[in-house]
Specification:
- This protein has 195 residues and is mostly helical.
- The protein is 79% helix and 0% strand.
- The chain contains 9 helices and no strands.
- The protein has helices at residues 3-26, 29-36, 40-46, 50-75, 79-94, 104-112, 117-143, 153-174, 177-192.
- 34% of the residues are buried.
- Residues 5-65 form the HTH tetR-type domain.
Length: 195
């Protein structure tokens, strides 16, 4: 890795939590320079604009979450246990143990929905990829007779995503972590009902 790549990575690592907590509009160039200790010239010498930094920060935050999900899924033998990994990982996401500021998909989807088409597109791709990953798990579960063939893989995937992201949103909005636990109890029952 050359010096320019190291500097770009440093900028992304230092600013990713800020973009995830404050959003695109809420993150200023002053926030970026304060977090990195670099000058505006150094930032713009490595990125064309704030948009490029924001996109790289989203990718970084998402990769942190996905790598943990993949690692934990690979430890599980049964499909239902693989599906339940999302509950455990996202519990750590909302508590800030994986990424500061919570779920980068939810945060970016809300922040960029009407204001930043490129970030919105990144969030859309992340959700579609997540949906496809869960669908593959469900289809494997059906093939292995762990999941009842009457279930629609896409419906299961969308339900899991909606419950995880909805649980995050409700628990953060109300500042009541117990709401997350109640919703995740319902999700566990839903996953258990798939057989």
């Amino acid at each position: 890795m050359n010096k320019a790549e190291k500097t770009r990575n440093f900028i992304v690592e230092k600013t990713a939590p800020i973009f995830n907590m404050k959003g695109y509009a809420g993150t200023s160039l002053n926030d970026i320079t304060a977090a990195t200790g670099l000058t505006k010239g150094s930032i713009y010498g490595n990125f064309a604009n704030k948009d490029e930094v924001a996109l790289a920060a989203f990718d970084y935050n998402l990769k942190n979450v996905l790598s943990r999900v993949e690692k934990e899924i690979n430890k599980q033998k049964y499909v239902k246990d693989k599906l339940l990994v999302y509950i455990n990982i996202y519990q750590n996401v909302i508590s800030g143990k994986v990424t500061e500021g919570g779920c980068p998909i939810l945060n970016t989807a809300i922040d960029a929905d009407d204001t930043h088409p490129a970030l919105r597109e990144r969030a859309v791709k992340a959700v579609i990829s997540w949906k496809n990953s869960i669908m593959k798990l469900v289809e494997a579960g059906i093939a292995a007779k762990e999941i009842n063939a009457a279930h629609n893989a896409e419906q299961v995937a969308l339900t899991i995503i909606a419950m995880v992201e909805g649980g995050i949103m409700i628990s953060r909005l109300t500042a009541k972590p117990a709401h997350w636990n109640l919703i995740m109890d319902s999700l566990k029952k839903y996953v258990d009902s798939l057989s």
